[in-house]
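Sample pair:
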Amino acid sequence: MLAFFRDVQATDCDPDADGDMLLFQWGTYDWGHGRFFECDITRQFITADGEDDEIWQLSFTIKFRPTDQLSALGSGNRWCHSRDDLAEFTAFVLGSPAFRAVADSQDGKPELDYECAG
């Protein structure tokens, strides 16, 4: 997802108006299918004038059984607003306790979703 953001310019999105951004997020949640620790990176696209039906997200999420160690990480997020910020954002993601806790794990369940977020 980091390379995709770096290398592929979104069309019909104004990067100067936050029309093409990355979001890193983590936490333990139950969205109705059981409780999981999630580590996610999402690319958000906002086209035209930014109405709710013009906000689209491509999300790559890996879900893990919620151990005490993972649950203790809490939840949080960080946005990357531009390619100029990508190096700092990448360093944050790769150095974050959430990413480091699951980086070598083999038991995560990956999900890829593309949907309207509005």
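The two ends are 22 Å apart (CA to CA).
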